[in-house]
Amino acid sequence: MESQDPGFYRSARSRDAREFSSPRRPSRARMPSTSGYMVAAAAAAVALFFVLWWMLQGEENPWVPAGLAASVVMLVAVSAREVVMRRAWTRYILDDDKHGKRGHAVSGRSSKLRNTQTGNLQSAALRALQKQSAEADAGDAPETHRELYELCGDYLEGAEEALRSPELPAESRLALRAGQERVRTLQRHHLLTWARGAARSLTREAQQRVRLYEKVETANRALECIDSALKVYPDEEELNRSAGAVREFITSSRVAHWVELAERAAFKGHYRRAIDCYRDALFYLTRDSLDRDREATAERINREIELLKTRLSNHRAVVTATETAGPRAKRRRS
Question: Smallest Cα–Cα separation from 126: which of 161, 152, 103, 88?
Fold first, then answer.
């Protein structure tokens, strides 16, 4: 009897192993490796060191700048590791929630365990989102808010799929719905914050541009950010005001460009060209709805056009009189 016990237990363990290692068991997401990340960073730093050392062979002590550059790469990698791994961990939780909640057991006891795991994963994902949301609000990086908006969408998708399960307990169902409401609020907040911050940054960049087409191109990128958020929340007044401000900047940049060209042409005596430039400025100014400021600017441009027309007429009269007086003086001399 004692000799049969080990074989009996081995066969039981093998049955259990086959039961839980069934091919139908869903594959789980793998957590990114921190050591792999640091090894890659170290390899990049070493490669940069040798490349710079080889390029600076003609300089004195070429290993000094090469070592400094490699040290900077490692410092940046170490400082970014926390942020990278935190985001990877959040995505790991969300992905594990999507695939893990299908379960891999067939009994009633394993079904209860699966539902408990789903609730725990959703709770962990919600806590991770709330923590990253607080960190993003403390920082000043618009792209971080965009990434959190996408993570909130992943959470809501996973929670909605979990709610379709008829075996989900009522307590877990209520907790999931409450979590969905909180995440929807976070999702709206981060999308609006991203659109506002990205538009503000691009508008500042456009103001520093010198050429008109660069100003307009950069400002249009800011408008694209705002419009993408307006597609999700079309009734957001703040976004509509921001879009109006960016369009006003584009219009004012175009008007200022053509007015400057008109003033230069008038200074050089090219009155016809100056009138055409003023009319181009007037076109961009009156293409949209006119407010008081635009009406005042349009009136000033119209006065300049009338003044230039008068100067052009006087100039033509002088030229005609000069051309007529020339032949008369020749006849008198003859």
Answer: 152
